[in-house]
Amino acid sequence: MHGMINRAIQCFLRDTYGAQAWLDIAENADLGFENFEAMLSYPDQITLDVLGRAARHLHKPVETFLEDLGTYLVSHPNVEAIRRLLRFGGENFTEFLYSLNDLEGRAKLALPDLEVPTLSVESCGDGTFRLRCSSAMPGFGYAMVGVMRAMADDYGALVFLEHSGWMDSGEEVITINLLEVAYAEGRAFDLFGRIGDGI
């Protein structure tokens, strides 16, 4: 797993639960180090071990932990670069949803080594969308539920989200009911931002 993903997990734990919580989880996972390097790659099993140890340490189901992680990735100032990448997808939440079909390509332009989940969005009519997610990390769809919830808030949209399970192909499915595109005022978004924003 790319170090940037592991680093994001570390930052989430540190920023949300405190530095000591992160150190305890790193020790319990037998990492042998205290900090992930964002530009290195790590065996997938290390990431899975950290996620499992973190969920146990925090007494949370892994699914809930992953959803909270997804929300953090979009809403916390320390990872503003991820929000910016997603906000380039459109002026409203509907445009953003359709832009997820191209997210993997956009991300590869910025970081060719980063393994981005393959996402596919289709409209089912009546404001309902189906998001299919294929990732090397089992359960990543739950993180996407958190991402989608935070992005809906970011755009000011009112949505109902549900992780609908796995397809036979292994893809996770998220059902998105877009109840109102402009329910509230969204967060301000500056197209240019600051150089150096991010993890």
UniProtKB/TrEMBL annotation:
Matches recorded under SUPFAM superfamilies: Ligand-binding domain in the NO signalling and Golgi transport (SSF111126)
Gene3D superfamilies assigned: H-NOX domain
Name of a matching Pfam family: HNOB
Gene Ontology MF: a single term: heme binding
Segments forming domain Heme NO-binding: 2-157
PANTHER family xrefs: GUANYLATE CYCLASE SOLUBLE SUBUNIT BETA-2, SOLUBLE GUANYLATE CYCLASE GCY-32-RELATED
The protein, known as: Heme NO binding domain-containing protein
Native source species: Celeribacter baekdonensis B30
Top-level taxonomy: Bacteria, Pseudomonadati, Pseudomonadota, Alphaproteobacteria, Rhodobacterales
